[in-house]
Amino acid sequence: IMKYYDDISSVSKAFVSLADMTALAHRSLYRLLDTPKTVVLLDRYYLSTFVYQGVLGSYDPKAYSAKDRELFVLSLIHTSGLPRPNVSFILDISFDVGVQRRTYRTVTEKPDVYESMMDLDKRYYDMVREAYLRAAEVFVPAYVLDASKSLEDLEKEILDKLVRYLPGPVY
Predict the structure, then answer these.
(1) pLDDT in tens, 47-64
(2) What is the DSSP string of 49-118?
(3) Residue 10 CB coordination number (10 Å)
(4) 35 in helix, strand or coil?
(5) For residues 99 and 120, what is the distance between their CA atoms, to the nearest angstrom?
(6) The pTM is what?
(7) Which of 167, 163, 171 is CA-nearest to residue 33?
(8) Is residue 91 over pLDDT 90?
(9) Which DSSP symbol is given to 27?
(10) Euclidean distance between CA atoms 104 and 110, whole angstroms
(11) Is residue 18's pLDDT more than 70?
(12) Phi and psi for 92 in degrees, rounded to 5?
């Protein structure tokens, strides 16, 4: 399937992505979650599935309504047995600031497929941003943070909020 990934439907892509995430969860994630005093941090895991397969789904708005895509992916996520995050953070930043910051990344870092699409199309970036803001409404608790702040200020804000969800005292 991966050989023909670009040619398959958005519904098939949702199944492929979810199958991969479920395999990872059963291979290692559940073991980590069952380990006492262990905190598991994941980047673009649960919410990104909702955003890219659910809210955005197909580029053809006539194929499925936005609500149908959301409901479809929500049902897939919930029935897959993926562990739901205790808290999510959405780092919200304007297109222009994001592009400006991205130019400072090293040459060796290759952008992923979604970053490449956002570079080419500000409208796509705006759709992704709106989809993440929608995800914050669906998956609670989800904090939308102003990522135009300095890295230090943003880190402090995340840690201040994250500490509420950690087991036991934090040193």
Answers:
(1) 877 777 666 664 445 566
(2) HIIIIIII--S-TTTS-HHHHHHHHHHHHHHHTPPPPS-EEEEE--HHHHHHHHTTS-TTPPP-HHHHHH
(3) 19
(4) coil
(5) 11
(6) 0.73
(7) 167
(8) yes
(9) I
(10) 13
(11) yes
(12) -95, 125
Place of tokens 């991966």: 2
User: Is the torsion defined by CA of 68, 72, 73, 77 positive or negative?
Assistant: positive
Tokens for 66, please give them: 């936005």
**Residue 148 DSSP symbol:** T
Tokens of 121: 């199309």
Please answer whether residues 128 and 118 qualify as being in contact, where contact means their C-beta atoms are separated by less than 8 angstroms.
Answer: yes
Kindly provide the b/e burial profile for residues 69-98, where b requires at least 16 CB atoms within 10 angstroms of the residue's own CB.
Answer: bbebbeebbeeeebeebeebbbebbebeeb
Distance CA 96, CA 100 (A): 6
Q: What is the mean pLDDT of residues 108-137?
A: 73
Sorted by sequence, the CB contacts under 8 Å of residue 40 that are 6+ apart come out as: 29, 32, 33
- What are the residues whose beta carbons fall under 8 Å from the beta carbon of 58, sequence distance 6 or more? 9, 10, 64, 69
Cα torsion 43, 46, 51, 52 to 10°: value is 80
Phi, psi (rounded to 5 degrees) for 65: -70, 160
Q: Which helix (H) or strand (E) holds 157?
A: helix 151-162
Measured CA to CA, the distance from residue 145 to residue 112 in angstroms comes to: 23
